[in-house]
Amino acid sequence: MDLAQNLAQKSHCTKAQVGAVLTKDTRIISIGYNGPPAGTHNCDEEFGPDGCPRDSKGSCSLALHAEQNAILYASKNGASVEGSTLYVTLSPCISCARIIYSMKIEKVIFLKSYAAYKGIPSDEGVDFLRRFGVEVVQYVKN
């Protein structure tokens, strides 16, 4: 989780900084943080303190979530994420949860609640993953 927190600091997002680490068999297989796709513009540099334009739901129009970036980077480099564990600094949103489930990631460990961050009543992504058999736990530092 320490690595995920450090990765979050690399994000250029002006709203939230999120980091993710995918592990398998005790090895790191991929990392990611939230931000626009590689080769596009960093939100804080291109759009200033207000960040990128918002989409119809009020979310960042350019950003990929940290989980998405970690999964895409692994896939791009030929690493299988099936059976892996995802460490992420913010619990997955419902869209990321569907991707996590579809990619057969078997465990998610998160630091902070997406629902608390967004001010919504429940962690829909966590609920979805648990409903379909993915182990999801909140990280507690020993």
TrEMBL record:
Residues 1-131 form the CMP/dCMP-type deaminase domain. GO terms for cellular component: cytoplasm. SUPFAM superfamilies: Cytidine deaminase-like. Keywords: Hydrolase, Metal-binding, Zinc. The active site is at residue 67. One of its GO terms (molecular function) is dCMP deaminase activity. Signal peptide: none annotated. It comes from the Bacteria. Gene3D superfamilies: Cytidine Deaminase, domain 2. One of its GO terms (biological process) is pyrimidine nucleotide metabolic process. The keyword Ribonucleoprotein does not apply. Zn(2+) binds at residues 65, 93, 96. CDD domains: deoxycytidylate_deaminase. PROSITE patterns: CYT_DCMP_DEAMINASES_1, CYT_DCMP_DEAMINASES_2. InterPro entries: APOBEC/CMP_deaminase_Zn-bd, CMP_dCMP_dom, Cytidine_deaminase-like, dCMP_deaminase, dCMP_deaminase-rel, Deoxycytidylate_deaminase_dom. The keyword Translocase does not apply. Its cofactor is Zn(2+). Belongs to the cytidine and deoxycytidylate deaminase family. This is dCMP deaminase family protein.
